[in-house]
Structure prediction request, 690 residues.
Amino acid sequence: MDVTGHTRRPASIRDVASAAGVSYQTVSRVINDHPSVRPATRERVLAAIETLGFRRNATALALASGRSRGVTVLTANTTHYGYAAILQGIEEAARAASYAVGIRVLESDDAPAVAAEVRRAADAGGGLVVIAYDPAGVRALAAVPAGLPVVGVVETPASPPKGDRPWVWTDDRAAAYEATRHLLALGHRTVHYITIPSSTRRTAARTEGWRQALTEAGAAVPRPLQGSWGPAGGYSAGLKLARDPSVTAVLCGNDDLALGVLRALHETGRRVPDDVSVAGFDDAPHAAYLTPSLTTVRLDFTGLGRAAFALLHGVLEKSDRIAPHPVSVPELVVRESSAAPPADR
Amino acid sequence: MDVTGHTRRPASIRDVASAAGVSYQTVSRVINDHPSVRPATRERVLAAIETLGFRRNATALALASGRSRGVTVLTANTTHYGYAAILQGIEEAARAASYAVGIRVLESDDAPAVAAEVRRAADAGGGLVVIAYDPAGVRALAAVPAGLPVVGVVETPASPPKGDRPWVWTDDRAAAYEATRHLLALGHRTVHYITIPSSTRRTAARTEGWRQALTEAGAAVPRPLQGSWGPAGGYSAGLKLARDPSVTAVLCGNDDLALGVLRALHETGRRVPDDVSVAGFDDAPHAAYLTPSLTTVRLDFTGLGRAAFALLHGVLEKSDRIAPHPVSVPELVVRESSAAPPADR
DNA sequence: CTGAAAGCGCTTACAG
DNA sequence: CTGAAAGCGCTTACAG
Prediction:
């Protein structure tokens, strides 16, 4: 110790051992809650740990034991609402389980670049959670080498995942189905759809749900418009739709797209919901405060993140029964932006 | 190798050494770009690395060398725009420097809980970036033990930081001053202010800038209203202000607060900007797409995150000259939500 | 230019 | 119940 009270080098189990008058193996037993330690010995060790301010070196633990109590999240984005909320859920659950969480952004969706990022993520040790909502993420999930513990956060898959590589998802099909049904029930002849950027699969679950609702109602199925993740994409898609006077209802892949659509409709003089109804996905924090407030489908991304970590935790700890982590069902939230079409008024 | 082509245990430097017919120290020299290795030897080692798919074990590297090429970000939040953008900037810069980034959320601002989180963050090894925009963050920054490399992302400080514990910040005072001046120049008699949650200092820089602009103009200085980080706080503060017919200009601590204020004014029948002007801070992605589009002050949080990492990198690598990382100056962006007050029309 | 030794701070068998 | 040994995969001096 120097005069400031800080040890130059943190105390190791050997320091604790000599302070407590035991061998360092005994210290190891105490900090690992090994049963076969005499209570008196344990007390002495605990006291030495306290006075020396000992903290077990996580790096040495990882090297010696071969496990690292860490998750790395691989994602193409950290700021869009869905991604950010998933990350929040993962961090929450990881912290509760005393896991460290790392984050690595996939800047490119170029296959070799993605593969390199996956390798670097694996270098951290521990498990992986890959957010596979976009081409980069989908590629990353596919590029994870066998034997590496990984959970994918995916769009609703066409077929269930393999047992050792679990996935989590929200019920995208049901979400889109509900939202479309809501708009049709208001009297709209059809519902136009602006998508978030698609991952690899042409028949995304949301598109399916939307199409199914239209088909069941005998409504025409317009061609979906490709949007982006942010308001700008909704704005430009909205300008296109605004030129078509037959458009009376627009479903948007997320609330930020919807925000852009609202703006585009405003600028082109189409009133919402009087002339056009708009609905989104997510129920992001701002959805309720827009004017008009936004009809949307609430998706529990934070819960999804928690579930992803719980699954990963299960495979890492090889617990027999992985606790089923239900992700809440998408819930339609009707607000001001949806109403009957002009013809019905 | 088994039939699937995956080694059970990853190749170590000893495996590479025996494959290349050299000692493992030589392998260590090659992977560390040590100059004194004969080119022919280097080639053989490189070839063995390639064929065995060797990757240096980061954990062992950290344990043996005592440095870990990692940053842990300590923050009370990961989803609000400013926090998320800072995190994005840190990750970007860290990835470019081949650093791993960890994230740990401060759920409580209770002093012992914060101290515990700081200790756990330190356990990861490497450096720390603490986002000190709120009580939890401010406490965390103060609780970082001496000797641990740390950079604080802070509100504009009253006095400059110590040399070995650098801070970064945006010019909050100038930002608030500019926004307030803009509103006064439009003819408003005064500007009401809704704050984001204050950290410890009563006289936050933004409040100072706002007050200074008012005082210089000889305007009355109303009592600031306490908001939150999200739209809900802006909404309730906005309802209060809407009851006062003398309120014609409102400055909001961030764009999400402004969104809530817009909603409150709409619900109470006060038109923006005809009756009341509203301005925010941040220029978040949605600000330009709101109706009315939002006058705001653009703050470069991503650049701030990059700068924070650059500073940390400097102290970790003990480079003599820490590259000055300029954070761009706040920039007023005038949009539809601000105009002359009703009296002047 | 290259190799043999010691050690980073732990854990995991193996003794007693 | 407790201790002595070997080892996790590297790096850092120290030899030659």
About this structure: Residues 1 and 261 of chain A are 64 Å apart (CA to CA). Residues 1-7 of chain A have pLDDT under 50 and may be disordered. Residues 12-14, 24-25, 28, 32, 56-57, 59-66 of chain A lie near DNA strand C (CB under 10 Å from a C1').
